[in-house]
Amino acid sequence: MSTITKVTKAVFPVAGLGTRFLPATKSVAKELLPIVDKPLIQYAVEEAVAAGIDTMIFITGRSKNAIIDHFDKAYELETELENKNKTELLALLRSIVPPNVSFVFIRQPEPLGLGHAVACAKPVIGDEPFAVILADDLVEDATRGCMAQMVKLYDEQHCSILAVERVNPADTGSYGIVRTGESSGTHAPIELIVEKPKPEVAPSNLAVIGRYILTPAIFDKLATTERGAGGEIQLTDAIADLLKDQQVLAFEFEGTRYDCGSKLGFLIANVEHGLLHKELKDDFLVYLKNLMQKLS
Ligand code: G1P
After folding, report:
1. pTM score
2. Whose CA is nearest to atom 10 of ligand 1?
3. Among 41, 90, 178, 270, which lies 20 to 30 A Cα-Cα from 228?
4. Which atom of ligand 1 has the smallest separation from the CA of 208?
5. Angle, CA of 140, 145 and 151, to the nearest 5°
6. Vertex 90, ends 104 and 81: CA angle to 5°?
7. How many CB atoms lie within 10 A of CB 140?
8. Which pLDDT score is estimated for 4?
9. Where are the domains of the chain?
């Protein structure tokens, strides 16, 4: 049993090929696609920092080096902005890598699935609880962020926690789906978890979104997890195994999730963030209103 109880590390599986966004993702990592002017992966890292996490572990694959560059110091660019006295842009650039935050990059040799990606982090995590953040689920709330809410719950409950939300019953085949026991307000113990069940066999419409806090016991489970849905080593299957030994909670977070792994979700996120963007929001709103008039 782990003696370290604070969540200080987050795993970002970023080795996926992003085929749903081809041709955009032929040579650009899907995690670098921007919502207005900020890449998805940066939103994810900022959410982890807001939760008090200080070690960001990226599980990368071939042709994902631009993600590493994004979180590295850009000397030439900084010098150029300094010379031109563009202080605001310089500050923006420097804020991408927050102070006291370390980045670790691990290569996933083969894309064998989310469970396999998480297992690749074991040598860096050791015997500690840790977060997993999937950058294509962009989750926002007005104050703390989804992971900060989960870390707070972890500090009280000391067990694995999965963020969940209700989805259209027709869409269960895109998610890990849980059945829960009696709820204590925002959270409930998970009784059953299944990866991507068809609607007719799904145990509910409560879907796991891309935010997890896991105890290190998950690594022993992952070591024996066989290929499941889609022929991949699924994190969901390892969690199903973990449930036999430990409590795992489903947590209904506060905030909005944008499914940026789908084209429609990505477009919606861009429109809504455009309407919040301090330089763009007024002009963008005028444009949208005019467009709606033309269309109606
Ligand atoms: C993964 C998980 C799934 C989870 C989903 C959330 O699926 O395997 O259980 O519900 O993330 O986004 P993916 O979307 O990578 O296929």
Report:
1. 0.95
2. 175
3. 41
4. 10
5. 145
6. 115
7. 18
8. 57
9. 9-161+207-227+253-261
* Token pair in block for residue 59: 């599980």
∠ CA 254-219-29, rounded to 5°: 60
Å from CA of 285 to ligand 1 middle: 33
E strands, the chain, where? 9-13, 34-35, 38-39, 55-60, 102-107, 130-133, 137-140, 160-166, 176-180, 187-195, 206-214, 248-252, 256-259
Tokens 């842009």 belong to: 89
Ligand 1 pocket by Cβ (under 6 Å)? 114, 134, 137, 175-176, 195, 207-210, 234-236, 261
CB atoms within 10 A of CB 255: 15
Cis omega (within 30 of 0) for bond into 23 = yes
Nearest C-alpha neighbor of 186 from the set 168, 160, 164, 207:
164
Atom of ligand 1 nearest to the CA of 114: 8
Q: What is the pLDDT of residue 185?
A: 87
Q: Which residue has the tokens 């970023």?
A: 14
Spell out, as residue ranges, where the chain has pLDDT lower than 70.
1-4
> In the prediction, which pLDDT does 127 show?
94
**Ligand 1 probe mutation, 208, 222, 239, 253, most atoms within 8 A of CB:** 208
As given in the structure block, the two tokens for residue 288 are: 């949208």
Point out the ligand 1 atom lying closest to the alpha carbon of residue 137: 12
- From the candidate CATH numbers 3.40.50.2000, 3.30.460.40, 2.60.40.10, 3.90.550.10, the one assigned to the domain spanning 9-161+207-227+253-261: 3.90.550.10
pLDDT for the residue numbered 115: 97
